[in-house]
Each structure stands twice: as C-alpha cells, then as structure tokens.
Amino acid sequence: MANPSLLILPGDGIGPEVMEQVKRVIAWFGDKRDLAFDVSEDLVGGAAYDAHGTPLHDETMARALQVDAVLLGAVGGPKYDDLDFSVKPERGLLRLRKEMDLFSNLRPAQCFDALADFSSLKKDVVAGLDIMIVRELTSGVYFGEPRGIFEEGNERVGVNTQRYTESEIDRVARSAFELARRRNNKVCSMEKANVMESGILWREVVQKVHDEDYPDVELSHMYADNGAMQLVRAPKQFDVILTDNLFGDILSDCAAMLTGSLGMLPSASLGAPAANGRPKALYEPVHGSAPDITGQGKANPIACILSFAMALRYSFDQGDEAARLEAAIETVLANGARTADLMGEEGGTPISTTEMGDAILKALDASL
Ligand code: NAI
Ligand code: MG
C-alpha cells in the first residue's frame, strides 16, 4: 500500500523555522517507527506571492485536495501589509480552508504540568486540563448574507448575518460526537438559544443528532456567555465543547490562554471524509508568522510539532504514536527545556528552536 501523503506548506516568517523541526520529527517516525510519509513541500502566503504573484498557486491548491493531510506553518508579515486584499498572504490560507471545505476546527487546550505556573489562573484550576473546542469554521456570521455597510436614511448601517442551515449544524455536531467517543464521551454545546433563532435551531439539531446516532455520549447545552465564565472559573468540567464560528473564535482563544504561550498551541481543521475514509485535513499552529522574532532562532516549534501529533491521531489513526510524541514534549518540558517564550519571571537561559527540536528527538529516542 502507498505511504500516506503529506503536503508541507511552511509559509512565512517563523513558519519555515518551526517546520524545519517538524520535518525532523516526521523523518524520525519514518526511521524509527516504520511510519513513512510521502512528503511534498510547496509555497503559501507571502512566499507564494513572491514567487507567483498569488498567495496560493492553483497547482498547490489542487495538490492540497489530493493529499491525505496538509501541514501549514504560518503566513503573513509586514512586508505584505500594503498588498491588495485579494492577494494578501491570509487569502492563501482562507482559500485552502474554503476549497477543502474544512468545517470543523479542533482547538485543544491542554495544560502541560511543567507549565502550569504559566497560566494566569491558579495552578490547581488548570493543572491536568485537557479539553477540546470544536468550532464550526465555514459558516455563521462571518459568511452569512446580507452583509455590508449600507446607507439607511441619513446614516450608514453595518450588517452581518448569523445564518446556519440544519445540514451545517448536523455535520459539525457529528464531528464533535465522533471526537468525544475517542476521548471522554462528553460534549457541551454552546450557543445563545435564549436570544438568537440560529441558536434555537443549533440546539435542536445537535440534540437530534445526539438522540438518533450518539445516545451513548453525554450531551449538555450551555449559553455561550455562561460558557465563557465557566471556562475561566472551572475549565476542567468540560471535555469537548461544540460551538459556532463566532463564539468558537472567542471561546477557543480564551481557552487557549488558560494554558500559557501561543508557542504551544496546535490546531486541526477537518472536512468531510474522502474516498479512503480520511477526512480532508489541515494542521497548523495557532500562532502567526511572528515577524518580531523571525530569523533569530527564538521560535518555539512545539505548537507546530503538536499539530503534526494531531495529524498522526486524526488523519493517520496513529493515536499511540501521537501520544508518544506528546509524552516526549511533556518530558522535555519537565526537564526544564524552555524557548524564550516559555521563560517565566525567574529568568534563566532560553534554548533555540533547533535545540528544542534536538531535545524532543532525544526524548523520542528514549521512548523506544
Ligand atoms: P503572532 O502569532 O505572529 O505573534 C504574536 C506574538 O507571539 C509575537 O510576540 C510573537 O513573537 C509571539 N509568538 C508567536 N508564535 C511564537 C512561537 N512559536 N514561539 C515564540 N513566540 C511566538 O501574531 P501577530 O504578531 O499578531 O501577527 C504577525 C503576522 O502573522 C501577521 O501578518 C498576521 O496576519 C499573521 N498571522 C497569521 C496567522 C496564520 O498564519 N494562521 C495567525 C495569526 C497571525
Ligand atoms: Mg481568533
């Protein structure tokens, strides 16, 4: 059987720097775990604009639709700030998400013990935290029509429309329930059914999908504003949180910060299963291209490496190997390895991007 295929798009700024370490990790799994991937690499974002005058070449897009998973670094940077909106680096990423129809965005918030002091919350509130936010990514108020700024009488009105069809809610609900079955069998769905009709429909459809096909999963519903309060009060009450695009944008950023640095946060965006049963999938760190530290060897590669761990788990059915990689990172952090972004007030000497990669490979070797 052919090896699973992986398209790597390092992008801009620190994207290529952190991706360099991911490539070493991928090679390690090929060498030591007999888990070989057909890896190809291409340009996205500003790098693609520089080469082709477009942030995503059609050929790259076509390739992304063929492979089993795409792994992306980051896009953007000050060099591209004055470009026309239509060719901005971010458009490359948006095109990928749209044409791959990646409707389910997985954002884990996981607290590594060694970094529990890093949280702005009390240590016992976050220690051991491991939750997953499933955010609907391709519909809702960021896409609904009508939208725009219109003249109305003698003033202007800004309009956006929150809109969800039953099938859009149905498919993202299924992805959350499937995920819950692989975790702790618990989903909390968040909307504002008290003040929004789209929320009423959301709640109804989620409940129906649950009752018909996932009665074994524990389901609760919560208003999203209360959800925000509960997330900072007692986040460990949750396992999988299912929510829409707008609330998910905010709640996932909020949950992420419970656990510390941007340099630690992975994500996955999944679409419908392809013919081989694997979902269309894009894995990327949450952070951007970090122009302030680009080229200085300071970037933390862990967010991008953890994104590859998610790929192992969700695209390649290698949950044990994903856990091996996560455990190696846990070990390295427990041993005190820190890139600059992970330095607390007590100071110390940070290690470089490459040194963090070295340490993780060493811990992987030790896991054999
Ligand atoms: P950013 O995430 O690039 O950086 C925010 C801060 O976090 C900076 O101080 C940066 O040095 C630090 N940081 C980020 N990742 C880090 C890592 N791995 N290790 C250590 N420190 C890290 O967000 P910012 O500054 O708002 O945006 C910079 C550029 O990135 C912009 O062009 C923006 O449009 C783009 N961007 C791209 C994203 C993507 O590709 N998905 C997401 C967010 C921003
Ligand atoms: Mg956001």
Automatic annotation (TrEMBL):
Gene3D superfamilies: Isopropylmalate Dehydrogenase. InterPro entries: IsoCit/isopropylmalate_DH_CS, IsoPropMal-DH-like_dom, Isopropylmalate_DH. Pathway: Amino-acid biosynthesis; L-leucine biosynthesis; L-leucine from 3-methyl-2-oxobutanoate: step 3/4. Keywords: Amino-acid biosynthesis, Branched-chain amino acid biosynthesis, Cytoplasm, Leucine biosynthesis, Magnesium, Manganese, Metal-binding, NAD, Oxidoreductase. Binds 1 Mg(2+) or Mn(2+) ion per subunit. Its EC number is 1.1.1.85. Its main location: cytoplasm. Residues 5-360 form the Isopropylmalate dehydrogenase-like domain. GO terms for molecular function: 3-isopropylmalate dehydrogenase activity; magnesium ion binding; NAD binding. Catalyzes the oxidation of 3-carboxy-2-hydroxy-4-methylpentanoate (3-isopropylmalate) to 3-carboxy-4-methyl-2-oxopentanoate. The product decarboxylates to 4-methyl-2 oxopentanoate. PANTHER family: 3-ISOPROPYLMALATE DEHYDROGENASE (PTHR42979:SF1). NCBIfam families: leuB (TIGR00169). This is 3-isopropylmalate dehydrogenase. It comes from Roseobacter denitrificans (strain ATCC 33942 / OCh 114) (Erythrobacter sp. (strain OCh 114)). The lineage of its organism: Bacteria, Pseudomonadati, Pseudomonadota, Alphaproteobacteria, Rhodobacterales.
